[in-house]
Each structure stands twice: as C-alpha cells, then as structure tokens.
# Entry
Amino acid sequence: ILENLELNQEMKLELENTIFLLEDLFKDVKLKQRRFINLYVNESDFEKFKVFENEEYVLPIPTEEGLLFCGWYDEDGNVWEKGVYSFEEDINLYAKWVDSSNYQLGVCQNFSETHTYRSIKKYLGSESVVVIPTHDELGKEINYIEFAAFSKNEYIEKVYFGYTIKELDVSCFSECVNLTEVYLGKNIIDL
# Structure
C-alpha cells in the first residue's frame, strides 16, 4: 500500500513506524469481527445492516404500501429475525411480502394479559401455499389469528406461520378441506 502513495522517503518511514507501533500495541487485542447482512426489501433496493461478533442484533421491519411483511428469508428459505451473529461471511436476506388485499386485519383484546393484539380477522386469498404475515402495513406486529379466519377456504394446502404469531383460535382453519400441512411459528404460546 505504501508504495502506491506519493510520499517522500521521510514520510514513508514515519508512517511505517506508526503502523509498526500500532500493530505492536494491538497485538493482544482481539477485534470483534464485523459482518454485513444485505437486506433486500425488493429486487432493486437493499441496505447493508452491520452486525458484530457476539452481539445480539434485531433486523429492521420494512413497510410497503399495499403489502404485509412476512419476514426476512435467506436463499435457503430460512427465516431470520434476531440473534447473535454466527456466520462466516456477509449474507443476503430477502423480504417476503404478501398482498394486503388478501387479509382483513383487526385488533383484539387478550383477556389473560393487559394489551391488545393486531390480528388476522379473515383471509380472502386463493393461494394453495399461505405464508402468514408478521407485520401490517405500518410495521406493527400481527400476533393473533381470529376465529374462522381461514375457514371454508378450499384453496389452502399448506400454511407457514410467521414468527410473531403467538395465539390462534382453535377454529381458525375449520373446514379447510385441502389443508394438509401446517408449519407453526416458534413463538406460538396458545392454540
């Protein structure tokens, strides 16, 4: 690097001595590894998200008009939410979206707690594979699936729950005659 700089010999020598002193000073210091998660919100927009070794990170929640966010997915289809970094190189994550017109959202009170949940009141879509969104158009978490929200839908064959869903009504998929596979999210606490 120093050969490419236009410095006189005295400046090069001083810079080399400074580098040597810094290397000696920090030889026993283990610097934290830094990696980047490249977050692709859509095909053309992405941002670099910096994470450091052994520090917890929480990924941002993007919003798009007319779309509901379902989570960040890697190229293998794994969902990423938050955690402590443990990957060897920078990674790419892709936002998964669903059309908000396929859902009627609501707010409901959880009587065992003192707060309200953002909920899915009704699914209006006709997809065979349904990925339950994690956030509404404003970036607020969706935590509950209401009574009969997907009932009598003849199109649904598979359902993947988002990681923010905590509760679902036992009858939310009643009479879904073609439903054969359900993948529950890791945070479901009550069925």
About this structure: The chain has a mean pLDDT of 85. The two ends are 62 Å apart (CA to CA).
